[in-house]
Amino acid sequence: MKQLFGCVLLVLICSITTRAQEKFDHRYMNYYYSPKPNTIIYNDTLYRGSREFRYLFYRQRNPELIRYFKKHQANKISGQIIGFVGTIAIIFGVRDISQSGQSKGTGWALAGGGFAATLFGGYLSLLGQANLQTAVALFNQQNHRAGLGIGASKNQLGLVYKW
User: Which DSSP state fits 19?
Assistant: First the structure.
């Protein structure tokens, strides 16, 4: 009974800190992690996938943003390829292990190497997402600073404060 009460209490504590929806500020670029495709919301427009990200980042003409986008793409593609090769290696390794014969050592090596490759591919995919998050943070830092300006026309003088 105490264990059940402890488990229920743990679930309640964890659920208090979770939220069903994530707030975002429409003035900023917002990045949302998702397995596929990643999503950026900017100026009430939803950007999904590398083609739309390329359009968004190249339109800014900022070499740092483009560099982070390219690093994201390289890590994502490399991670997917290495993860796929690792999965294939696991399948062939398990096949060799389950067959009777002399190739059990090779099967274990394939399965172990495939597992390591799959983990490394996932790590590269996470690095790609971190690069995209860095690009979004850099964009928000560079483009959304408060500013003070003075404007003058023919018969007026004005002070403008941009948030």
Answer: -
Name the token pair of 22: 């994530």
Structure tokens at 136: 């979004």
Name the pTM for this structure: 0.68
CA atoms in the 13 A half-sphere facing the CB of 159:
1
> Inter-axis angle of helices 49-60 and 63-98, to 10 degrees?
160
CA distances from 110 to 78, 100, 101, 142 (A): 20, 16, 16, 47
pLDDT below 50 — which residues of the chain?
A: 163
pLDDT at 129: 87
Chain centre to alpha carbon of residue 162: 30
Give 85: exposed, middle or buried? Use CB within 10 Å, 0-12, 13-18, 19+. middle
Please count the other Cβ atoms lying within 10 Å of the Cβ belonging to residue 131.
20
- The candidate with the shortest Cα–Cα distance to 31, out of 71, 84, 69, 61, is 69
Residues linked to residue 157 through DSSP beta bridges, in sequence order: 152
Secondary structure class of 48 (helix, strand, coil): strand
Amino acid 81: pLDDT: 96
